[in-house]
Amino acid sequence: MKTLKEMVASGKTVKFAFYRDGELNYLTECGFLFAVPISDTGNATFLAEDKAILFMRYIRRQIELIEKARAEQAAGLATAAPL
After folding, report:
1. What would the pLDDT profile of 26-74 be if each residue is shown by its tens digit?
2. How many CB atoms lie within 10 A of CB 78?
3. Quick count: other Cβ atoms within 10 Å of Cβ 58?
4. Cα–Cα distance between 70 and 28 in angstroms, integer?
5. Would you state the pLDDT for residue 81?
6. By the 8 A CB rule, do 52 and 29 touch?
7. Could you point out which of 8, 15, 42, 59 has its C-alpha 20 to 30 Å from the C-alpha of 30?
8. Model pLDDT for residues 66-78, shown as the tens digit of each residue
9. DSSP 8-class letter at 80
10. Whole-angstrom distance, CA of residue 51 vs CA of residue 81
């Protein structure tokens, strides 16, 4: 997985992918999928394609969720009894 900086630097863009369960889902140029909750949008305009740097907080949130899940999975595997 690329770093947050790599995903948003140098004028990179995001593209709208789909809407589901109250979230706008976008893809970065490298194919990283992240969600923008409708509850966070207020009266903002969300375009089909936009500058990735404007979505940095949502990309960061998704990266943190993935890292937390990986850590929890690794901790679960470490404490699992051997077969």
Report:
1. 999 999 999 999 999 999 999 999 999 999 999 999 999 999 999 999 8
2. 7
3. 18
4. 21
5. 59
6. yes
7. 42
8. 999 999 998 887 7
9. S
10. 47
